[in-house]
Amino acid sequence: MSRRKKMVGLAVIIAVLLVLLTATTAWGAGVDPSIDSTAKIVNAKNTAIGLDLLWIVIGAVLVIFMQAGFALVETGFCRAKHAAHVVSTNFAIFGLGFVGFFLVGYSIMFSGYSSPGIFGYDKALSSSSLIHVSGWVFLWGKSGFGLSGLAYSVPVMAFFLYMVAFMDTTATIPTGAMAERWKWKAFVGWGIFCGAIYYPLFGAWTWGGGWLSQLGNSMHFGFGYVDFAGSGVVHAMGGVAALAGAIVLGPRIGKFNRDGSANTLSAHHIPMAMLGCFILLFGWFGFNAASTLAATDIQFAIVAVNTALAAAFGATAAMFFCMYTKPFKKPDPGMMVNGMLAGLVAITAPCAFVDPYIAAIIGTIAGVLVVVSCGFFERRGIDDPVGAISVHGVCGIWGVLCIGLFANGQYGGGWNLTSEGPAANAKGVTGLFYDASLGSRQLVAQAIGALVLCTVMFGVAFLFFKLQNAFMKGGIRPEADIEMIGLDMPEMGALAYPDFMEQDAVTMHAGTSPTHEVSAPV
Known about the structure:
This protein is 64% helix and 3% strand. The protein is an all-alpha fold.
């Protein structure tokens, strides 16, 4: 009896399963397979967009972390009596530039920008520009102020966060070249001006779809001005502003003798500067690799390798160059730091377009170039405590030109939406050494961009600092006795190293010489 019940129960279960299977098959036969396929496509697209958005936000966080690296490098390279002031400028510039870029700068730079197929950013904030001549766009800025209106969307928010991090790098660079002799209130003005006007202006001409980016369509100069992650748009922009500011401020007291010879005003904390350099190296992978703007664009792997190679070869080249040339004859730690940073700056523009061995060459040349450049500016009476003009300005221009020389043509087809001229049929961005015809045109576009940086943008920064100096009470530089004491207490109301600096500051302020040796250079 028990066996029979089991058999009946099993038969019932099988029957139920057969009915369910039949019903499911009949229902499935009535479903349009295209609907199912469409759903899968939509889901896959949403997944890709989400992955790309995550990629760009992570990249932004890495670039923002670079601010810590800049703070350590610049503070370590400066003297102890100015340390609180220098590190505070690196801290405050994040907020100042951010405010300017949020309220005004993003609209000026990107209100006409869209990027079909990349994390859903397929609609520009404005269909028309503020200033244009015969199709050449010189200024956007008709919508998107304060991320309002159409800017209130997920893709725009992610892109804004990434771009504001880039802007802060530009704004930070002059704080090194102008360190130890810059009034706080003048610095505050620069931070807001850079975020709101200075950086967005050149950025609109290049990354925002303006006239420099369209030199390929308008003049048949390759793909127009190309700058993958910002050797020019970010670093050279900061470098030329640093040069302008250093000229207006003049050198630090005691830097040059009456005969023009230079004195060494020693860095107070080399280990701090070297640690900062490693932090910058770490963050730079967000700077360069995430500039693919898509985790699904696997070119980021090549970008990352090229970035690391240029950094390594730059630091090594600077080390060997110092070991065997005067006046060093030793592996100068400061120049090793600047050599690594020079390699990173130089590879930032061409990192997606060159072979790895070319990245090594670019970094090597940058490592030597930065040492030579620092000496060049010093011999001409320009005081740059951290070498920012040479690292970011000179090596940034070198990186811009490297695209026109070394781009291998394997990536970047249709860059800048180029659809006219010889470049339109090229596989990708191509340099002179890979195709004489296409490369020469691309090199012209890069040279035009470099020329604009060295003239127009330098002029804008120089005019800003000159006007500041003329209209601010007492100018933008502290009085000589305050500079001699150190800017920490007079400007910030706090000493970075009170244990051994306070007594020295008091005696110097009283007009007497210190009666003891301090435990670190000041």
